[in-house]
Design a protein that fits this description.
about 300 residues, 14 helices, mainly alpha
Length: about 300
């Protein structure tokens, strides 16, 4: 598999994550950790179906290294747990803005991995353009006011960004580990989701078909296939380009919410679109236009 092909496959995760917000809205009042448990169970089931169809032994994909287990579970479950903590201890907009530092951090951290392409100005500039567009989009062009009383939420959001960016970049060091292994990470994440639900939440199951379909859609797409294709992308694709392009996720989310009648179009979305798309094109300069003579 070429780097270009792996990058395209990884890019499908960004598209699928764009549907995360809409599907989540359609799940109604299902508690967050219960939702994690249910959707990651479906994700594990998806991988089980793959093993069954191709008559593979699931046991051979069980990670043999403790470091691999730690990375996978910390990445999938740790990210979601920290994000929920951030949302509960800080305004949703503030927490989201901080949490969405992870694409920029992926671009920066990837330069620290031995053997990777060195960080170039257009990688950073593209990621910053995407970050600016993301902030305009989430804040809807308004003013953001961070307050000391929400420090716990802000710290959780920072930890959230660090967790997912670290998971994505460090995964590259385990490129020899098959993507099927992510299926086992999904199972552990599902179990932890149910455990945390039992400890901290009141059970509120879906009440209609739409909610059940939304949960199924989440488990098969944004939580299922997306994590598998992202694994391929960060391990074998252009991770800097994937990082910068990830800012398209909130833009896709906004467009889908507008089309579904759950949000309204605004000038902030148009400006954010220019920043995010322009940033992605800039970060992909070499892939699109070829390498120039200058560094």
């Amino acid at each position: 598999m070429s780097e270009f092909q792996a990058t395209l496959i990884g890019g499908t995760a960004i598209l699928l994550w764009g549907a995360l917000a809409l599907f989540t809205v359609w799940t109604g009042a299902v508690p967050p950790f219960l939702l994690v448990g249910m959707t990651f169970t479906l994700a594990f089931g998806l991988m089980c179906a793959k093993w069954l169809v191709f008559r593979e032994n699931p046991v051979k994909y069980l990670p043999k290294q403790k470091a691999v287990w730690l990375l996978g579970v910390a990445g999938l479950f740790g990210y979601h747990a920290l994000y929920f903590v951030a949302l509960r201890n800080a305004p949703a907009m503030d927490a989201s803005l901080i949490a969405y530092l992870w694409p920029l951090l992926i671009v920066v951290f990837s330069a620290l991995v031995p053997g990777e392409e060195r960080l170039r100005w257009f990688h950073v500039a593209g990621a910053l353009c995407g970050l600016a567009g993301c902030w305009i989009l989430i804040s809807d062009g308004g003013q953001v006011s961070f307050k000391a009383e929400y420090t716990v939420g802000y710290m959780a959001a920072i930890a959230c960004a660090l967790t997912w960016s670290s998971y994505s970049v460090i995964s590259r060091k385990f490129s020899h580990v098959a993507t099927d292994t992510v299926g086992w990470f999904c199972l552990v994440t599902a179990i932890l989701g149910f455990v945390f639900h039992g400890l901290f939440e009141e059970t509120n199951l879906p009440t209609d078909t739409i909610q059940w379909l939304a949960i199924t859609g989440l488990g098969l797409g944004p939580v299922g296939i997306a994590f598998f294709t992202w694994d391929i992308g960060v391990k074998k694709g252009n991770i800097k380009l994937l990082g910068a392009s990830s800012y398209a996720t909130p833009l896709i989310s906004a467009v889908l919410l507008i089309l579904a009648g759950r949000s309204e179009a605004s000038w902030a979305i148009a400006i954010a679109c220019l920043g995010i798309v322009g940033g992605a094109v800039l970060a992909a300069k070499e892939m699109i236009f070829g390498k120039g003579k200058s560094a």
